[in-house]
Design goal:
4-stranded antiparallel sheet, single chain, 9 strands, about 40% strand, alpha+beta, signal, DUF3304 domain-containing protein
Amino acid sequence: MSIQHVFARGLAALGLLWALAACASGPQLVSHAFNFNGWNDGWAEQAELLAYSYGDRYTMTKRQAKDGDFLGYQMGVNGPMPVGEFLSVKWRLKATGEVFEQRVDLRQRLPRDMTDHELTFVIDGPQLYVYVVTPQLQPPETKQRTHRTWLSRYNQAYEIFPNAPSR
């Protein structure tokens, strides 16, 4: 075996070890969704979203309004992404101008496997509600929401904040 061949194999092995170490130290990607829809959930008429962050490892799931502005009422990200350790939401009530901010620690609230699940939130005045929506469909006889989120009309969902899940 030539010295070049040995050197090339050594470099390849070193590259493989580096790639494995990078994968092990980076966030695990899980195919799931983060979304909100103030129009369908009914909070768009009463509140303006000022900031949100589903974890801090993925730029697509966090945003903050510029001074005096607001972010809109709906957004969705779906696909492989890190599972967030927290959800932070800041909003302003249109009627009073009061600003509320809530940070929810998700580490003990989310299912162990978020694959194909969705995380969403609903604003109701000064209260934030957070839901996990499962991939399981609602039974055909269910024709209405089972929770504040419109997604519960179609898929089984459960509240994880402010109340703990009763599963």
